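User: Can you help me understand a structure? I only have the sequence.
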Amino acid sequence: MKVLVVVDMQNDFIDGALGTKEAEAIVDNVAKKIDGYDGTVVYTRDTHESEYFETQEGRVLPVKHCIRGSRGWEISSALPVDKDAKIIDKPTFGSKELGMYLEGLNDEEAIEEIEIIGLCTDICVISNALVIKAFLPEVPIYVDPSCCAGVTVKSHETALEAMKMCQIFIKEG
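Assistant: Let's start by predicting it. Here is the structure, written out as C-alpha cells:
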C-alpha cells in the first residue's frame, strides 16, 4: 500500500490569514497529485479553538487562524477530498494521532511508501514527516517540493535539507 499525506491545505494557509503567493502557487499541483494518486490519501487539518491566543502557539504567533468551523479552517475547495476521506484534526504542528493512524494501517497491510505534501514545509510538513519517521522508521518517506510551500522560500529550502538529513527522501523535478 502507498499513502499520500496532505498536510494542512487549508484556506488560512493558502489565501487567508497566513497565506502566501507560494502557497497559492502549489494548489493546482496538489490537486493533480491527489486526483491521480494510486493509494490511500490522508489529510491533516490544523485546528485551533477560540482560546487560541491562550496557547503557547498563540502567544508566539498571535495571528488567529484555522479556528474550528471557520472558512480558514476548511481544506481548500480546489482539492478533491472524498466525502469518506480520513481527516485528522491536529492542535499543533506534528500529529501523534497521524503517526498512530499510519502505524495501525501498516499493521493491517504493509505500507510500501509514504509521500507527504502540503503546508508549511518548514513547520507542519517537517514536523509530521519526523513524527511518521518515529512511528514507521523502516517505511520510506518522500516529500514532493513542487507540492509544498514554506513560510518563506528560504525556510522551505532549509526544511527540505533538514529532512534529507533525517533520511526523508526529497523528490526531484
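Now, to help you interpret it: The longest strand covers residues 141-149. The two ends are 24 Å apart (CA to CA). Let me know which part you'd like to focus on.
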